[in-house]
Write a structure and sequence with these properties.
Elements: H1 2-36, H2 39-60
Helix pairs in contact: 1-2
Length: 61
């Protein structure tokens, strides 16, 4: 039972770390867009971050 709880805790921590990484990428891209106004590049960075996070979620299923 304890090993199951430990496994779930590790998985939850990884999920939280992945979510935080995703949010930080979005925040960074939005800040960069505010500075540069380069919509095309910012959109591509946002799209890349979304797809990377989606792939991480799919791998966990």
């Amino acid at each position: 039972m304890d090993s199951q709880i430990d496994g779930l805790k590790k998985k939850l921590k990884k999920n939280n770390d992945d979510a935080l990484d995703f949010v930080q990428k979005l925040e960074s891209t939005m800040t960069e867009f505010e500075k540069t106004g380069n919509l095309s590049e910012s959109f591509n960075e946002l799209k890349k971050a979304v797809f990377e996070y989606k792939d991480k979620i799919i791998k966990q299923i």
